[in-house]
């Protein structure tokens, strides 16, 4: 049995553990479906959370547009590769959004992708929020990321 994502030390502790498991990981933030910061790892100052919120909102909008254009199911993840860093943005089934940044010459992108998927797979049961997406656009595939209603 896997351990809970969010335990007694809360969301910050869970995000700190996520960041701590992958070499090069710098920070993690969870945003509401509306893009409001719900929590972050210890290195996340309010200004950074606000900036990340704006960036993620735009990237999620582009991802959702791509899902409609390509007709290939719901949006699960957006990965931005920069010359010195990666930004992983993953949708959590309850509508929240996980964002993690890794940087450096020896980053483990595959390890981060695995840890993000693991966090997302466990997060819905443990995050203290139960919201649907803010718009009618679907995040995630029906049956996988959407609860039967």
List the helices and strands and how they pair.
Elements: H1 10-20, E1 25-31, E2 37-40, H2 46-70, E3 77-81, E4 85-91, E5 97-103, H3 109-126
Antiparallel strand pairs: 1-2, 1-5, 3-4, 4-5
How would you summarize what this structure contains?
This protein is of the alpha+beta class. Helices cover 36% and strands 20% of the residues. The longest helix has 25 residues, at 46-70.
Task: Characterize the structure shown.
Helices cover 36% and strands 20% of the residues. The protein is of the alpha+beta class and 149 residues long. The protein has a five-stranded antiparallel β-sheet, sandwiched between helices.
Looking at this protein, list some descriptive labels:
disordered N terminus, alpha+beta, 149 residues, 5 strands
Unreliable spans are 1-8, 130-138, 141-149
Give the amount of beta strand, in percent.
15-25%
Q: Helix and strand succession? A: HEEHEEEH
Tally the beta strands.
5
**Gyration radius over CA:** 14 Å
Distance separating the two termini:
28 Å
Instruction: Estimate the global geometry from the Cα principal axes.
Output: globular
| Count of helical regions | 3
pLDDT average, as an integer?
81
Q: Largest sheet, order of strands side by side?
A: 2-1-5-4-3
Structural class comes to: alpha+beta
Helix content: 25-40%
């Amino acid at each position: 049995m896997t351990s809970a994502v969010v335990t007694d030390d809360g969301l910050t502790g869970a995000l700190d553990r996520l960041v701590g498991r992958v070499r090069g990981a710098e920070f993690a933030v969870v945003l509401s479906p509306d893009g409001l910061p719900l929590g972050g790892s210890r290195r996340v100052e309010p200004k950074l959370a606000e900036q990340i919120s704006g960036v993620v909102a735009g990237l999620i909008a582009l991802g959702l547009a791509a899902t409609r254009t390509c007709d290939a199911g719901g949006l699960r993840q957006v990965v931005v590769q920069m010359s010195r860093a990666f930004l992983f943005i993953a949708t959590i089934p309850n509508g929240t959004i996980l964002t993690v940044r890794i940087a450096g010459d020896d980053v483990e992108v595959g390890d981060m992708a695995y840890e993000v998927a693991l966090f997302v797979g466990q997060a819905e049961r443990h995050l203290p929020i139960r919201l649907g997406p803010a718009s009618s656009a679907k995040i995630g595939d029906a049956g996988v990321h959407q609860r039967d209603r």
